[in-house]
Amino acid sequence: ERFKFPAPVGPQQIFLTIHSETATLPLSFPSLREASFKIGFPDEIIRAALGSRKGVINHAPTVPHDSPRDCEITLALVRGSSGGKRVQRQAYCKAMSSEGHSAGDWDTVWPPAIVSCMIARGEIQQRGVFAPEVVVPLNVFFERLRAIGFSVTRH
Hints:
Number of helices: 5
Strand content: 25-35%
Distance between the termini: 22 Å
Structural class: alpha+beta
Order of helices and strands: EEHEHEEHHHE
């Protein structure tokens, strides 16, 4: 399916994939009826991956010199009802490459580092293994992501 992400990413082909959230969210939110995780890549990456699986190409795709900086968007789309009306809410976090690190570096390293600091400071009291949606104070977490340059948006 094609999904329109916020700028600078824009429309991307997205695919279902396995991720831990599809296991933890139904436990954290018992009324949840469906949870899925989808991932998208630029079209040239998809074409290269499909071509290489067929033995058609043997080189990595090239990125044009005028392309936007590396960007990753983690987006949650929630559909449900509130007060008898159907509602849809969306939130996303955008990580951009900078200081010699890819967007993937930023959104892989910083969130667990922030949570580790929250545990060390006693801001998270629970001990053991928990889904983040159960123990991490979201407003504080998002505030700290913004402080280091992530863009966090809710609609």
